[in-house]
């Protein structure tokens, strides 16, 4: 009887531990804002294999992603001006990323890749002209 009770107790313990070890999905939004805000630089603007990125650093653009799901887009030499505000969203089931601007304009992208060090977004349905390659804003 004591052996049977111990076996049942051990089985229940194993089953309860097993339930707590479930895999948790990664929240891909954390790559964008690091649980607060994070600035990404548009490192490349591509049409096919043609690079249309401004040569001069100060004419490049940055995107500040906030945990609130708002983003602000600035040109580096115009950081003293208000940025273009947009709400951003991501749908991993459709592999889509989008910006919804206050003037109801929308940029829709296919997510080519997303990580902490690089994001590649390819335009969908002609909503934006360029494939964007984003990198965290370089610290100098």
Low-confidence stretches: none
Strand ordering within the main sheet: 1-3-4-5-6-7-8-9
Secondary-structure element pattern, one letter each: HHEEEEEEEEE
- Strand content is 35-45%
CATH-defined superfamily: Domain of unknown function DUF4822
Which CATH architecture is right?
Answer: Beta Barrel
Number of helices: 2
* Count of distinct strands: 9
- Euclidean distance between termini CA atoms: 71 Å
- Helix coverage percent of residues? 10-25%
Number of domains: 1
Q: Would you state the CATH class?
A: Mainly Beta
Compute the gyration radius: what is it?
22 Å
Q: Biggest sheet: strands, sense, closure?
A: 8 strands, antiparallel, barrel
- Kindly report the CATH topology: Lipocalin
Structural class of the helices, strands and pairings? Answer: alpha+beta
Q: What's the overall average pLDDT, rounded?
A: 84
């Amino acid at each position: 009887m004591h052996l049977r009770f111990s076996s049942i107790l051990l089985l229940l313990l194993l089953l309860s531990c097993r339930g707590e070890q479930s895999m948790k999905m990664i929240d891909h939004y954390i790559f964008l804002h690091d649980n607060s805000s994070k600035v990404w630089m548009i490192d490349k603007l591509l049409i096919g294999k043609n690079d249309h990125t401004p040569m001069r650093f100060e004419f490049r653009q940055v995107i500040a992603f906030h945990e609130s799901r708002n983003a602000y887009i600035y040109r580096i030499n115009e950081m003293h001006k208000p940025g273009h505000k947009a709400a951003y969203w991501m749908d991993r089931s459709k592999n889509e990323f989008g910006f919804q601007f206050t003037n109801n304009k929308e940029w829709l992208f296919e997510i080519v890749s997303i990580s902490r060090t690089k994001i590649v977004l390819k335009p969908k349905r002609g909503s934006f002209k360029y494939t964007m390659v984003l990198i965290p804003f370089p610290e100098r």
